[in-house]
């Protein structure tokens, strides 16, 4: 009975991780739709985050989940995880604006390498030679995606996508210490609130416009009421049960969904060489967790992060 319950919970966690990956994969396409409606990247991240935060925190309050939250966990999620998530998403949306949704979503998928590097920095665990080879392969795949095809990718767009990948990895690893202390709904709401405040401040300081077409509002509401709560909330559920390494494997769905959605809804196309580069990135990403499993160690997470996980 216990084994059956454990398998059931694991299946739910994997399902939540997959749902989160699909939601994140659709995000760049709807960000591009928002841009067409006149929304700037910072305003888009701010408003979608605040809409999602309001929904999640209202649900957390209605179910009594907010009462048990300690101020330390709330501060960590809102003031550390929130700005990290918001700024990396701002970099990603800015990259989408420069490179298009398809290319940005493939480049940003290099984030498992940054997760691996951060865990090495925190634990000083020796990196497997196979992981280093996969890192080289992924870098080559990114180069094919970014440098091939009929339209050249602007260097600043590729850099923004890489910065987003690094920021997302930092968000994953740092957030592990707080995520077990609160419910996934509350964690998602607090992180979204912090993201909205941080990016809203950037938008105000930069003097970005807050007026745009109805299609811009449609993109904001679709992301804030559906994609963002599913993406953040389900990912917290998955990381609590599976850990950030396993969730990064589920992230393989993101570029696939992102590329197909951009092709269907936006008419974007990748060249054959870019498709080959995407395949290299996906295969190398899929192999990373297996490389880790071949050399089991007492822990694959920093001691300081035990007992808490996030996304």
Automatic annotation (TrEMBL):
TM regions (residue ranges): 12-36, 42-62, 74-95, 101-123, 130-148, 154-173, 185-205, 217-239, 246-266, 272-291
Q: Is the keyword Protease assigned to this protein?
A: no
Query: What membrane topology is annotated for this entry?
Result: Multi-pass membrane protein
State the GO CC annotations.
Answer: membrane
UniProt subcellular location? Membrane
Record keywords, A-Z: Membrane, Transmembrane, Transmembrane helix
Coarse class of the primary localization is: membrane
Where does the record place the EamA domain? 18-145, 156-285
Family classification? Belongs to the EamA transporter family.
Q: What is this protein called?
A: Threonine/homoserine efflux transporter RhtA
